[in-house]
Specification:
The complex is a heterodimer of chains A (about 400) and B (about 425). In chain A, about 35% of the residues lie in helices and about 10% in strands. Chain A is α/β, with parallel strands linked by helices. In chain A, the strands form 2 sheets. A 7-stranded mixed β-sheet of chain A has the order 4-5-6-7-8-9-10, with helices on one face. The termini of chain A are far apart. By secondary structure, chain B is an alpha/beta fold. Chain B is about 35% helix and about 15% strand. The radius of gyration of chain B is 22 Å and the shape is globular. Classes of the chains: A alpha/beta (about 400), B alpha/beta (about 425). The interface between A and B is large, with 95 and 107 residues.
Chain lengths: ~400, ~425
């Protein structure tokens, strides 16, 4: 009896896994244009008229391209999924939100079809009820029909209540905003009181950091904590091992203070901990291109710091195959145009640092085009040098 | 030690070994240190408590302290058009709707990276007490020396770089609170002048490595019996201090302290001022993995000629801080480095007959950047004339709790001082979570 139970469970599980696709196929037969037209009103689903309003009403609050909200706080799409552009819907950090003609591979359809109390259901259980069945069916039908957008490519930013101003647009021009006291009522400070306050708390801060933390937890999966013996061995081999994030088995390994002792051979010591290394700091060490192949094979590497190393194009090309790499610091390395171009393949990248490398601006621009959501830092926004040093500055007496 | 302490410690030591656990417990609570001279890098480097926050990636702290009380109205919280504003105009910044005083134009261009806290408030209006409060979260008392925030971070997170000190204070003099009742190895290394770097780190003239080794050996033999007879933490710490110093003297990392290795452009980009040099040194130490670097600037107690004095003082801060933020960002280090600009209190909105402003703890401003802080905004506000906090008050303890939280120091961990009294990193302060991205 006790032995049978698991089998029954397995069977039930199999059923639940199989049934939804079966049902789905039943419900929506292949769209023969004429038949579909007669059976379901409207025939071919019109994206702009029928789908977009549903997305607008239910999804855009969280899933829209980066913008600045009323409080001046920059917002990013939640979970890296933006649904207000065609590109956003067809590709995203999280994989394919919509796969034309394949509703069962489309994460959007999966997410809206989850049970009411499922925590992954969209819109989120905490904020809204599930979409009505007709709307779910309509979206599914739209995907089945090929997920065509017509002429739509994205929400027209101009129309969007002026919220899309970038933080940089208000760049200081070095001129006083309000020269003389007495010009009451015209002060920018008064027109735009600047406080983050509760609004930001309510809508915002969970979005950013929890998403990053969630990603780390997702990458770690059900990894067991790193064994103490391995940790101690690493420390003996000049590594410093720290946990990467709360409740996460991934670790950060750095060699600060021992850089001169670290070269490609040293990387072998990482093997014992390879599944656990989420962040690797090799700044100013002697690692070279040859070592990068081994680094790229670390299965859960999320952040890599190769600041001021001799790593160049060949090494970076090898790194581009890393599966979860989110942050790559190549400041002061030898990477050039070829290496930068190769990074386009690494679609998980979110932060790339390329200041003081041989890479040319054109290559960086091309990469930015390939990785539109990544922050690629190529130059430093340094202030003009201070030439006129104030005589009494910093002296004074308490 | 009461039950509560034990529970909070054991909870947080999940993945430390038993030996580490017992060791850290003994070190932290009883003030015992193991090993003395023999203690190699590994014990010094093992993080005592490891709890990185979900929120930020901050691993290091640069804490810029303007000693004397910076006027909030003339810097981070201008009130253009109001009688209390005086002659200092306001500037638009790269953060929409956030204004700065006219002497901070370069910081204005970096405001997308920083968040001003405009609703700081405290009740302590005397310099030594307020400085102590700001840096330790506790009122100054005769009976106990509280550890500074930097020492808490150092103790909790360990040293990333085994050769360099975990905590460095530039320009503050030796009287800055640091280790407090923590064991002496958490005492900060004071650097008098960033331009001079680390003094007395080279071997004396006429002493070569061999002779130096013989001297060290002699010292060790002389100390041996004393250390055996007096196995106290301070004796052991003395030995460790020597070992640390020798390790540092012989290391490549000594170069981290030498800002002369930076080119002329970088020097002038940070500004050739004591504060600018301090910021540049801080950046070098961040690159080398020093946990906590404080840079102290004096002269902010502007009782007379406030406006002329600020015109002299602020350009150095504007330049140094703007350069630091931009430089750390371009090097990919700003996300893991929290940069703080703090002062002990603000200055009176009312301008007195000497064109001065006086002590004003009731409402003032500080600034946070990096380490997971959401830039491009201001948190909280003061009323129209900058007299009272109007919105989202932040106490000094809350402010310190926010920094501690970002760096992964658990706010609820209770550490008992050698005389048996319980303390937490930011006393009863609560982190202002909405500041994080």
């Amino acid at each position: 009896m006790t032995q049978r139970l698991p089998r029954l469970h397995a069977f039930a599980l199999l059923l639940t896994l199989l049934v939804p696709p079966l049902l789905a196929q039943d419900k929506a037969p292949k769209p023969e244009p004429d038949k579909a037209g007669s059976k379901q009103a409207g025939g071919k689903v019109d994206f702009a008229a029928q789908v977009l309003p549903i997305l607008e009403k239910n999804c855009f609050k969280c899933h829209r391209s980066p913008y600045t909200d009323d409080t001046g706080k920059p917002r990013r799409p939640k979970g890296g999924v933006a649904l207000d552009t065609k590109d956003g819907i067809t590709t995203s950090k999280k994989g394919k939100v919509v796969v034309a003609k394949k509703p069962d591979e489309s994460k959007m359809i999966a997410a809206i079809s989850l049970p009411k109390d499922d925590e992954d259901r969209m819109p989120p259980a905490k904020e809204a009820d599930p979409l009505p069945k007709e709307q779910i069916d309509l979206l599914r039908k739209w995907v089945e029909q090929g997920a065509e957008f017509g002429s739509w490519t994205g929400v027209d930013k101009g129309k969007d209540k002026g919220k899309d101003q970038k933080p940089g647009d208000g760049k200081s021009d070095g001129k006083p905003a309000d020269g003389k006291p007495g010009e009451k009522g015209k002060t920018p400070g008064k027109d735009a009181p600047a406080h983050g306050g509760e609004k930001g708390h309510e809508a915002g801060h969970d979005g950013g950091h929890d998403a990053e933390h969630d990603e780390l937890l997702e990458v770690a999966g059900d990894l067991e904590p790193l064994a103490d013996a391995v940790k101690e061995q690493l420390q003996r081999d000049h590594a410093f091992v720290e946990p990467l994030a709360r409740d996460c088995a991934l670790v950060r390994v750095s060699f600060l203070g021992n850089e001169s002792l670290v070269d490609d051979d040293t990387l072998k010591v990482l093997d014992a901990a390879r599944a656990h290394i989420g962040e690797l700091v090799l700044a100013r060490t002697n690692v070279t291109d040859a070592g990068c192949a081994a680094i790229a094979k670390l299965p859960h590497l999320v952040r890599l710091d190769l600041r001021q190393t001799r790593v160049g194009d060949a090494g970076v090309r090898a790194l581009a195959s890393a599966r979860h790499l989110r942050s790559l610091n190549l400041f002061g390395s030898q990477v050039g145009d070829a290496g930068v171009a190769a990074l386009a393949q690494c679609t998980t990248l979110r932060d790339v640092y390329l200041w003081q490398t041989p890479a040319a601006a054109a290559a960086v621009v091309a990469l930015q085009h390939e990785l539109p959501d990544a922050r690629i830092v190529f130059s430093a926004d340094l202030p003009e040098p201070l030439t006129d040093v104030p005589q009494r500055g910093g002296r004074g007496k308490r | 030690m009461n039950i509560h302490d034990f529970r909070s410690l054991s909870r947080s030591c999940d993945d430390a070994t038993r030996r580490q656990f017992v060791g850290s417990l003994a070190r932290g609570l009883l003030g015992v240190t193991f090993g003395g001279l023999l203690a190699g890098a590994s014990t010094a480097r093992t993080p005592l408590r490891v709890l990185p926050p979900a929120s930020g990636r901050a691993r290091q702290l640069v804490y810029l302290f303007l000693r004397g009380g910076m006027s909030h109205l003339d810097t981070l919280d201008p009130k253009p058009g109001k009688a209390t504003q005086g002659p200092v105009a306001a500037l638009r910044t790269r953060a929409d709707g956030v204004l700065l005083g006219q002497y901070l134009p370069k910081l204005a261009d970096q405001m997308d990276k920083a968040c001003i806290v405009r609703s700081m408030t405290s009740k302590q209006g005397a310099h030594p007490q307020a400085q102590y409060l700001m840096r330790t979260s506790f009122e100054k008392r005769g009976t106990v020396q509280h550890p500074s925030l930097g020492a808490w971070i150092h103790r909790c997170k360990g040293r990333q770089n085994p050769t360099l000190p975990g905590h460095v204070i530039v320009g503050g003099g030796a009287d800055m609170p640091s280790a407090g009742f923590f064991p002496p190895q958490f005492q900060a290394l004071p650097i008098g002048d960033a331009d001079g770097g680390l003094q007395n780190a080279a071997l004396p003239r006429g002493v070569d490595e061999q002779r130096f080794d013989r001297r060290l050996d002699l010292l060790r033999r002389m100390n041996e019996s004393f250390a055996a007879d007096h196995s106290q933490r301070d004796v052991a710490a003395y030995g460790e201090a020597y070992a640390d110093a020798v390790r540092l003297m012989r290391s490549d990392d000594l170069a981290a302290f030498d800002i002369d290795r930076e080119n002329e452009t970088m020097r002038t980009t940070y500004g050739k001022t004591p504060f600018g040099a301090g910021c540049l040194l801080a950046r070098r130490l961040v690159e080398h993995g020093v946990r906590c670097i404080e840079v102290v600037s004096d002269g902010w107690d502007t009782h007379a000629d406030n406006f002329d004095r600020l015109a002299d003082l602020l350009p150095a801060v504007d330049q140094g801080l703007a350069a630091l933020l931009a430089d750390l960002d371009a090097r990919g280090l700003l996300q893991e480095t929290m940069v703080v600009l703090a002062t002990e209190f603000g200055r009176t909105p009312d301008i007195d007959q000497d064109q001065g402003r006086n002590h004003y703890p009731k409402a003032f401003s500080c600034l946070l950047a990096g380490g997971g802080i959401q830039g491009g905004r201001a948190h909280g506000s003061t009323d129209a004339e900058g007299r009272e906090v109007a919105d989202a008050a932040v106490s000094i303890q809350d402010f310190n709790a926010t920094i501690a939280h970002a760096l992964g120091v658990p706010l609820d961990e209770v550490v008992t001082s050698p005389d048996g009294r319980p303390f937490r990193v930011a006393d009863k302060g609560e982190a202002v979570l909405e500041l994080f991205a």
